[in-house]
Amino acid sequence: MSTGIDVTGWLRRSAHWLRVEASIVALAVTALLVVVPLRGTPVERLYEQLDITVAGILEHVSPAEHHDHGHDVAAEDKIICVAETFGTDPADVRELAQVRWVYAYFLCASAPPGTDWDFASRISGPTAVSLTAPAEVRIAAAGLGYPDRVRAMIPDNLEARALSGFADKDLPDELRRRYETEISQA
Predict the structure, then answer these.
(1) Can you say whether residue 9 is alpha, beta or left, with left for phi > 0 and alpha for psi between -120 and 50 degrees?
(2) Torsions phi, psi of 7, nearest 5?
(3) Is this model's pTM higher than 0.85 or not?
(4) Could you give the CA distance from residue 168 to residue 184 in angstroms, rounded to a whole number?
């Protein structure tokens, strides 16, 4: 008894379309990986978010708070910063919402628009920043006893890193390029 259905032809046509669909999916996945590469481990991605967050907090600190940290900033000055996270509290966090404190090395530059880089006010060093509202920023005062003041605000296991500067030696150059665009040429 024949049903009139060509099973062999149907399987051949279905297999063809499955190969076409599989090829399209493979191309889409490949394109996605090329266009949007996965960057680093979850902790590295978290630290990248924290770098941006800390720099943003520092850029929006009031002139009075900057003065308290040893950085003279006038009301008309524009402030730009970069930060490089080297630790958090709690230490084993995996999400931004879990972070209470960020420990980072920073560099900020400020000046009125149109000021050349050579005349900008700059400050750098380790900082401890709480991610509360409002954020609390701790920066050790410069001068005699500075390393001891840094050690007092940074967890023991992060002290050596706090006193060693930027691990990414390109960050100061990135800040300078940004300064040239946003302040010098403004």
Answers:
(1) alpha
(2) -65, -40
(3) no
(4) 24
